[in-house]
Inverse folding.
């Protein structure tokens, strides 16, 4: 099936319908998307990182989860598949897909499932509207980066700190110094290197296309990323899409922080779900690079608005201080999804 999940879209498969061996599986996905062609003209990809994604979904054997979800990023123009990151946008379509494909049954007006995110081992409770014994895609929830409105999908991320790196602060520090630039390396669901935009000679409010054409900026970001990878327990990241690089600046439209995120070499049209959670978490840490420019609320329940090129992304953080350490117990976000098509995709293998 082809679904829009959040502000991304991708191909969704049941695990039983794809080869179990990763090399064969990846070849099927590359052919389905359009291979190494940057236009993806011979496949179903949309020639953009946000539309060159896939999900593999199956029933989970874990006692604490209902579904297993493996996310795959097909790298546009590079003829390869990366399974190192999670994707919270594509995650939003997992329960609708599982219902539509008969993996799980509707529970009533709402259907919830705990999803095991195979890429990181973390869990997320997803709640979908299912009135009238079917997935409800129509509603009045608006998310930036998506036209119109849809039914709400609630995603409650559970204990995502250190999802890929083993620790919320994988370097052991709130602030590091890489290539002469202060950074905060953080992983609360997505490994992200947070950098003040002004430290790289930009304002952080430039349009996406302007940043994408700034080859000097992108080269500097990549140099920092390659150093940060091993520091964040990710090893050599030259052929990985993590860590993501997020430029931050003072909020422009009443939010908590303004962002421009690279994934990793192209400026995101918005901001990734889990990337937004990690940036929001960096904002509430005293001494991070966000200190002094982020607007953060008081109290243990923190509602954060992460501004991006096409709007804002709201993140709720349920926090607690234990032994002088800030703990994020749960991260909640609101997404939507829509089934675009279902059928057969023909691949060349």
């Amino acid at each position: 099936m082809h679904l829009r999940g959040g502000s991304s879209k991708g191909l969704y498969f049941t695990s039983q319908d794809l080869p179990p061996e990763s090399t064969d599986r990846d070849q099927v996905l590359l052919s389905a998307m359009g291979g190494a062609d940057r236009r993806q003209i011979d496949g179903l990809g949309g020639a953009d990182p946000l539309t060159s994604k896939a999900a593999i979904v199956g029933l989970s054997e874990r006692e604490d989860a209902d579904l297993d979800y493996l996310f795959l990023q097909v790298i546009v123009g590079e003829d390869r598949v990366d399974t190192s990151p999670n994707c919270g946008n594509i995650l939003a379509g997992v329960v609708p897909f599982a219902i539509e494909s008969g993996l799980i049954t509707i529970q009533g007006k709402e259907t919830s499932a705990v999803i095991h995110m195979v890429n990181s081992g973390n869990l997320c409770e997803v709640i979908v509207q299912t009135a009238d014994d079917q997935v409800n895609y129509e509603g009045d929830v608006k998310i930036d980066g998506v036209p119109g409105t849809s039914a709400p999908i609630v995603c409650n991320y559970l204990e995502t700190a250190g999802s890929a790196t083993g620790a919320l602060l994988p370097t052991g520090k709130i602030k590091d110094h890489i290539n002469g630039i202060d950074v905060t390396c953080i992983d609360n669901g997505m490994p992200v290197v947070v950098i003040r935009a002004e430290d790289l000679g930009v304002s952080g409010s430039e349009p996406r296309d302007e940043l994408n054409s700034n080859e000097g900026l992108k080269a500097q970001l990549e140099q920092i990323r390659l150093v940060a990878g091993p520091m964040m327990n990710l090893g050599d990241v030259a052929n990985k899409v993590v860590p993501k690089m997020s430029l931050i600046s003072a909020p422009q439209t009443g939010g908590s922080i303004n962002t421009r995120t690279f994934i990793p070499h192209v400026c995101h049209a918005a901001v990734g779900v889990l990337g937004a959670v990690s940036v929001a978490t960096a904002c509430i840490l005293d001494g991070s690079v966000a200190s002094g420019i982020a607007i953060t609320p008081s109290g243990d329940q923190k509602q954060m608005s992460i501004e991006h090129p096409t709007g804002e992304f709201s993140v709720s953080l349920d926090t607690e201080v234990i032994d002088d350490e800030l703990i994020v117990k749960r991260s909640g976000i609101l997404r939507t999804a829509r089934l675009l098509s279902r059928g057969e995709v023909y691949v060349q293998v």
Q: What stands out?
A: The mean pLDDT is 95.
